[in-house]
Amino acid sequence: MNVRRSAAVLAAVAVIGAAAPATAAPSPSPSQAFPSALYGDKDPKFDGVWRQSLALLAQDTVGVKPAAKSVEWLVRQQCADGGFASYRPDPATACDAKTMLDTNATSAAVQALAALGGHDGVTAKAVDWLKSVQNEDGGWGYSAGGASDTNSTSVVIGALTAVGEKPDQVEKGGKSPYDALLKLALPCGGEGDGAFAFQPGKKGKLTANADATAAGVLGALGEGMVVEPGEKKSATACAEPRTPEQAAANGAAYLTSALGEDDDHLMSALAGAKPQPDHGNTADAVVALAARGDTGQAEKSLRWLEQNAAAWAARNGPAAYAQLIFAAHATGTDPRDFGGADLVKRLNATGPAPQAAEPTNAADDKGGKDSESNSVFGVWWYVGVCLVAGIGIGFLFTGRRKQQP
Prior knowledge:
The chain is mostly helical. The protein is built from 15 helices and 3 strands. It has helices spanning about 5-15, 50-60, 70-75, 105-115, 120-130, 150-160, 175-185, 210-220, 245-260, 280-290, 295-310, 310-315, 320-330, 345-350, 360-365; strands spanning about 5, 265-270, 275-280. Strands 2-3 form a two-stranded antiparallel ribbon. Strand 2 (about 265-270) and strand 3 (about 275-280) form a beta hairpin. Helix 4 packs antiparallel against helix 5 and helix 6 (about 150-160) runs parallel beside helix 8 (about 210-220).
């Protein structure tokens, strides 16, 4: 997300050779004002659709009705073939061969628009495009034709689930998205056992990646960024990941161990930099653990976020606030009283005033929505962030498809 899709985004940047300064994008000057319907005030070049989708999805999750112009802006970002680019400054200009379509942005938009309802035509076209660019191994990369990665595959699974598709029946070359995820799950008995890798490294080696693991757990469970707490389960020993369920259990165990090593949060570090708390990936891990029913560690890490994530979210903006809202929702925590902060109010303040800022009933006020409210993945995924290439999420996943500390 501006926060959790860094691995996928950076991989794509590396492929196209786009070198960007490793600094946060500046606020717009009067001569480069961004669309008034857009959430956030930083350059949307790499994450406009992603952060808009997360913002709208988070608002819907807590019973807030987004501004109509913000929803319309997102709809108009879609290209004629159904895909979404990371950002199109002029939607009136038709997409062409130079338009770099983005599976993570497309999947996030599907999840947001499916949750909001009334956009079946848009989401159907987007899903058709996603199916058209599915890789032979059953997965997806950040861009069409790119090598499959855990984050992108997981955020697409969330999109498929959001529109009522069965991911295990979406196949290419006889392979489903779950086949792709299982190939990216580390075996038991070695370093990082139970985790997911982002992509295979040299000679096919798999290296544990916490962000990819959070996304992979959600993807393997067939979930999106917005989840209800799963039925409480006991931790299980790592076993050969032959099924998505076992891969999710292994990944959850890895996350629980990793979180416990650093006082209930994850750490991250860029090459040559001092390790720092990784708020976005911690939020994604909370969602993943809660989805599987590993509520004990999820709640501990949620408490850590309540005490430590305020400055990080303020610095990163709408996608970060959305990640925290998803984490709160997944654990049954009130996002309007998150360590004393009202996440919903702060998210709303990063963009156009919503049509209705308060939930319509008491259940929504507590972050709970009934089974007919189209709760979807809305995470993954997976922005990722850490702004290593000048790019401003958690999954699964989650991004999906990572983030600044």
